[in-house]
Amino acid sequence: MLKYLSIVLFAASVTGFIWLLYTEIATWWGRRIHRYASWVADEFDAMFEDMSIARATRLITIVILSSFLLGYLTGGLVPALLFAGAGYFVPRVFVTYQRHRRLEAIDDQLVDALRLMANAIQAGLTLQQALELGAREMKPPIADELGRVIKEIELGRLMDEALRRFAERVPLADVRLTTDSILILRETGGNLSETFEVIANTVVERKKVQGKIKSITAQGMTQGVVVCLMPIALMLLFSIIDPNYMRPFFTTPLGWMMLLVVLVLDGMGLFLMFKLVKVNV
Question: What is the DSSP annotation of 76-141?
Fold first, then answer.
């Protein structure tokens, strides 16, 4: 009787410990996913896109579970965990890519916006009226950012502070140059229209140099991408031709270690290649 009672108590203790551990992990995971979803929602809100925290949570969960299922169908539990870990970062990569595209679009529109505001100031409009004209006449995304500046000013924020917040939301060197020039001229006085024209011409010349450098380094970047994608392409090709030939890579500890080494070295090679061909202007 005492033996059975000990077994029951031991089983109950193990069950309680597992349940407590599961509760702690679930709570920690819930907090982490909520912070992740909040970051995604904030980033989309900064890009003037509709994304609630609940929707971001669902999307993150779907991506992680889909990656886990794909990895499990590919080679079992360990690849499933690796795929799920990679899937966790997919939303972050996507949001970062979308933000980078938006910043590039703003950078491309900045010259036209500066020249439009320079002409408006030459015609006798104030700086705030010139900003309103830019928000009205330009297309998104720069129109959205200028509109937010105007809205903040109308709600009582000082123009200098609204411009500083604009430079923080759009971390581009040319935007920082523009806002700093405006702030300095508002304190010291000067020809704001002429300053806009000078900044616009500077940006145009810088883009010309960047275009030349990009055309020169495009071949090196393409070669680096092709070389780094070649091992993955060959692995997929061999998996299709003869699945049994590639199965040890996904089902044995040595195969997992080799895959990890390949991914790390491949990523390091791609990173170094981009560093070598990147030239800052």
Answer: -HHHHHHHHHHHHTHHHHHHHHHHHHHHHHHHHHHHHHHHHHHHHHHTT--HHHHHHHHHHHSPTT
Whether 53 contacts 41, CB under 8 Å = yes
Structure tokens that stand for 190 in this block: 């000067």
70, two tokens = 């794909």
Under DSSP, is residue 274 helix (H, G, I), strand (E, B) or coil?
helix
- Mean pLDDT calculated for residue range 113-139: 87
pTM above the 0.85 mark?
A: no
User: Average pLDDT of 114-118?
Assistant: 88
Bigger pLDDT: 44 vs 28: 44
Q: Where are the domains of the chain?
A: 15-88, 108-190, 210-277
Q: Please, which residues have CB within 8 angstroms of residue 79's CB and are 6 or more apart in sequence?
A: 71, 72, 250, 256
d(C-alpha 90, C-alpha 60), whole Å: 8
Question: Which amino acid, one-letter code, is at 260?
Answer: L
Q: What is the CA radius of gyration of the chain?
A: 27
Residue 17's pLDDT is: 57
pLDDT of the residue at 3: 57
pLDDT grade for 230, boundaries at 50, 70 and 90: confident
Please write down the HEC assignment for all residues of 133-191. Answer: HHHHHCCCCHHHHHHHHHHHHHCCCCHHHHHHHHHHHCCCHHHHHHHHHHHHHHHHCCC
On whether the CB atoms of residues 101 and 88 are closer than 8 A, the answer is: no
How many CB atoms neighbour CB 40 within 10 A?
Answer: 22
DSSP state of 31: H
Residues 154, 99 contacting (CB under 8 angstroms)? no
Contact (Cβ atoms closer than 8 angstroms) between residue 135 and residue 126: no
DSSP state of 279: -
